[in-house]
Amino acid sequence: MPPKEEIEVIAHILGSLDDKIELNQQMNQTLEGIARALFKSWFIDFDPVRAKLDGRQPYGMDAETAALFPNSFEDSPLGKIPKGWEIQPLDKIANFLNGLALQKYPPEDENFIPVIKIAEMRKGITENSGKASPNIDGQYIIADGEILFSWSGSLEVVIWCDGIGALNQHLFKVTSNKYPKWFFYHWVKSHLANFQAIAASKATTMGHIQRRHLTEALTVVAPQQILEVADKEMSPLLDRLIANKLENRTLSSIRDFLLPKLLSGEICVKDAEETVAEVA
Fold first, then answer.
1. What is the three-class DSSP state of 254?
2. Is the domain covering 4-85+226-279 a CATH 1.10.10.250 domain?
């Protein structure tokens, strides 16, 4: 073991990485909260429409943007929604691709990609993660920034940022060719509590939802012009959140790489300090 003084320096170096990781996590909580509040205000509570109905200027909105919103409501299966807006099932605003039974696609010699199951959605890729052939259909290979939704067991929605992996069964990859990522991500999140309640009511050891529950989950879709304006606010928030998650993955790798090498003396403290200063 290094001398006590050197161990304290090592702890300070690695602590700098931990502090940066924690800061990014806190920032992401703030970004998620801001995005959720804006989405709820515009697409669930319809605050701009209610303001115009009351003869008020929508809060924090310029006149040009406010003019895009109607000043009245109409009946729908979800109750009153802004006039001219549409009701769409959740599985019409996004595609839900179920994963593969990846035990049927074992690794080929030393060539493999890690398997993404519910455990990986929570903890990321680990040494215990399964391995699958890299030659599976490309649509089942997950990249950073994609939305994953576990529809059985522990129902969760995550923005995946732990590297290339293979989509296992019981998970959906959620995509859309028509709507922006933030839009269907927040709609899935909005229905998540109900989906979890459905799964919990199943008299099985592993509760789940079915495809029909995606159809029964309704969403409110604004006209394209409003979606485009919202995208200018929402997409940068999502992009920043993804960038922070990816940075944390890099910082964690650097920390885990440096620790044993610093303790063994393979890397000197000065070199480690310079490396950490560049990233943290």
1. helix
2. no
Distance, CA of 136 to CA of 100 (rounded, Å): 9
Distance between CA atoms of 25 and 32, rounded to whole angstroms? 10
Q: Which residue has the tokens 């079915």?
A: 210
pLDDT of residue 201: 85
How many Å apart are CA 68 and CA 227, to the nearest integer? 10
CB proximity list for 133: less than 8 A, separation 6 or greater: 105, 106, 107, 108, 111, 112, 113
Contacts of 183 (CB under 8 A, 6+ apart): 93, 176, 227, 230, 234
Dist. CA 44–CA 49, nearest whole Å: 11
**Tokens standing for residue 205:** 């050891």
pLDDT in tens, 237-250: 999 999 999 999 99
Topology agreement, domain 4-85+226-279 and domain 90-221: no
Residue pLDDT, tens place only, 56-85? 999 889 999 999 999 999 999 999 999 999
- The CATH homologous superfamily for domain 90-221 is DNA methylase specificity domains (3.90.220.20)
Paired with 96 in beta bridges are 174
